[in-house]
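#struct-pred

JT: dropping the chains for the assembly here, can someone run the whole complex?
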Amino acid sequence: MSFRRLLRRWQGALLSIVGIVATVWLGVNGQLGLYIHPRYFVFTMVMAVIAAALVVAAFALVPAAEDEHELLDDGGGRWAWLWSAGSILIIVSATVGLLVLPPATLTTATVAKRDLNGSTSNLTQSEADSLVGGDYSTFTVRDWSSLLRQGAGEDFFADKTATVTGFVTPDTSDPENVFFVARFVVACCAVDAQPVGIPVYYPGWQDEYPIDSWVAIESGFDTNPSIISEETIALVPSEITPTDQPAQPYVY
Amino acid sequence: MNMSQTIAGRPPAARRRPGRGLTVGLVIIGLVILLRAFAPQTPADTLADTARDFVTLSISVVIESLPFVFLGIVLSIMVQIWLPEGFLLRRLPKNPAARRVVLSLLGMLLPVCECGNVPLARGLIAKGLTVGESMTFLFAAPILNPVTIITTQQAFGWDSGILVWRIAGGFLIANLIGYIYSRHPKPESLLTPRFQDACALGDHHDAADGKIKRSAGLFTKETSAMLPALFIGAGLAGLIQTAVSRDVLVTLGSNPVWSVLALMALAFVVSICSNVDAFFILSFGATFMPGAIVAFLVFGPMIDIKMLALLRTTFTAKTLVQLTLIVALCSAALGLAINYVV
Amino acid sequence: MTTAPRVRTRFSAVPRAPPGTIDRMNRESSAHAAAPEPAAAARSVRLAARRFRRLFSATVAVLILLVAGLAVANFKQGPRLASAEINLEAAVARGNPRLLLTANQPLAEVKAGQVTVSPATEVSTSVTDRALTVEFAGILRYNTVYTVTVTDVASTTQSATSTLDYEFTTPDIDIYALQRDSRVGDAGAKRPDTVRRTTLQGRGDGDIVFSAPRIQQYVALENHLAAVTLAEDDTATLEVVSFAGGENVQVPVPSAGVIENLAASPSKHLIAYTFTSAPAAEGRRYDRTPFVYDLTEYSGLPAEVTGVDGLPMTVMDLGFVPDSTSLVVQNAGQTLFLIDMLGDALLTPLGEHDEMRGFVPGTRALVVADPDQGSTIDLADGAVTTLDLASSLLDGSAYPGKLVLLNEKGRYARLFLQETGDINQLASLIAVTDAGDSSVAFMPASDSSRVRDFCVSPNGQYLAVETIPAAGLGDNYPTLPAFSGMTTSLVDLDRGTSSRSVSGFLPDWCA
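RK: done, full complex below.
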């Protein structure tokens, strides 16, 4: 009985500790960018510290278990163990998910689930128009893919060089010869990340660059030599440089 | 009336030895940090891609929401313990309709989480509010709440009027409920005979304990009530995003009628705190129509499994059924109207 | 009394209630109850209960009707237009512009037959998720209100259909013209030549964008104007003027000489020209050597375009492929080459032809002429197609002159010179012919005026016709001589009328 009450009182504090330690650890290692937008970094760390203070105060000041006045739903004595089991399950899975598993970015599986280069992730026409004539060397994957989607023709791309970094994800229409160098576009949080990408023609890429590995490409555009691929314009690089996953893998 | 003397069997030793609890707490924290430090840092290929994405998405909802949950709890603690009681209640207008309007907006000044809502509503009844008026407060406060408004604005911005209609819908429904139940001939019949509340600090402890101790206690209570629902909700969001096929989501989400019903059902099941439910539903923002999102954001904070369980300690089952019916119909009407017009 | 009595309920503790409160309230309510009769009180409560039940049922009923009505309305309503996007500038400059219509729901397939455009234009459609892309065949007209209506649009989840429509207006286009002024000004010096700019819809000749004592020719770019000016001794200089203000840039030329064949690729900020050294100049001798100058390059030096094996070339004619960095040149041996100015500037031979005649509007097909026939060369794959043109109504009765293709389907405009009663005078006529119809599109207003040159607008909608008045005096410029009082008339090919003309010649379309 008292274990159940103990659990019910302290499950919040335990889950808070798991969450706070995970957050602070990610923040200290600069990996918060994997999960949330940079504009929340400071706020998140501050609240984590305040909550940590409250948790410590709770451990110090609050009695370990309370007496009979505090019971909730006690008429269900048969099912009470179920609630305890559920609480334990939540605590354990939270610990495993947040603390044991290493931090990771979203993978190609999510690219397949969401629309690559769908309309919500690309810039609008007016934003794309304002890009034209800018400094092309600073363009990200998102800028280039938006211009490609807007239908800027081959003549526009003929003299441009793209310098981009992204992860490798296969082109569904021609997986052997064409892959996309892709990034996720995040508006608020990783949970609404939409993938964007530029097609790259490089036959046999699967042998050299595994899926979801990060590469840096500097290359010009050309008509896509692959006939089966759905993309008409692609990067045709002579060399691709593998890189490390950047600290902020998402494009905002 | 020194209530602490009526408590039997309370070990006085617990109050005089904070060191023991502190040690336990610090040891636990230390163990957790060690666990994180020794866990592998680089992603091994042991997990399938889909499973890894499930974990990443769920974690992202948790990490995004946790600071806002803590913020809500801190504000709630400040309001319940550090604010002079009855301060605002003396200044309510006399006209019943105006009183309900002001009570709906009271949530902006007294931001409390769902768990703090019910005891606060009880306290309001004790201080002289009618049952109808406290219902207005109960249903408006989770939505007309600074943290909720901020997170909704951060998640959805100003497009499609989601934020505006969440606020307007919450306000209108709360006032409608208050109006209807103000016409009830015997409001006391709406309440259960015994008030039992899981969340309130036993009132008999109030006078004796210091404010800091009560704050810490309230923190423990609120987190225990809200964090399990947050983690379950985050897991559910990740699961739906990775396990349910995109076709099903798109088919359901782009139909103006089924999208509303589906998200209302989801809102009922997922009892996530209203402060951060915007981050949860954001994962569906691209596939579901805006009316469905508004229906979720209006129905969820008012009626869901956890809320019904909490309210059951205060209101009779028949009252709860009536409330659920009205709130559900209003949310559905709002969602369908938005889908029709926007 | 409109509100229910305040409720005091018993719970385990009420922190602030003073002692005896509950007893007092109980006494009060019982005092209340004691005054009227118990039966009346019970009846009023029952009435109130009934009123409440009615209120509740009525509210629920209204809500149910509202929800049902909205559900039905939603089921019956098809997709709605959320936004529409089209690049209007590109729509009148390049072929096959696209209109992107975004709906609020994912769309089922839309066939081209469901789309009606007014004025009538062929379209092709494609649907991705919520977006419907309508691609227009050809180039759009200037200053026209287009209305696009798509009927029977359904979403993938419901069968209800709706109609989407969208209206847009295409923009105007700038018209440039060169006015050579032989008159003498107040100070006794010749008045300067000017390049003026106006628009199709405007009136009059427009504003001066460049003036110099003697302007030989010019080309217009997006924000610049490049002009060849002549000094008193006929030495040529090449100047680039920026419309944003600032100093004029003088493009360095190797020595004194003649600059001809000035051409531009406006979207790529490139100009090309040929340079011939003057007989007395020192240093290397240039004979119609082609040069290309990149306005965006900081070094500011023009690059010589070399021929096969890097040897110097002599070029009879050159022109840029529209909207690209590729140059087409015809060398002294009448061989045409395609040169991509990027990178290594490789040459692709296109065959030997007498004359290169420009591009079909909206395409990359180069029109070439030979003594017995004309052809088009598709620069994408090098395919040569012989022109099989319909015969014009003036074919037998007038001498044929310059021919300009108006679209890929064989519509063309041709200048004819027809004998009149006066043996010294030939009347100029421009006839437009296509597969079904041939008619005279333009005749100068006065019989004694003659047409010197004409060309077609980038979208094939207008002809710009240079006419010389009978009283025109030659200006004796060494290259591209002209006459005083020349005017350029703009002919609307859809209506066959010419309602606009500007003074001057050499409109930028003809460059």
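JT: nice. Chain C is about 10% helix and 40% strand. Helices of chain C lie at 21-34, 38-76, 88-93.
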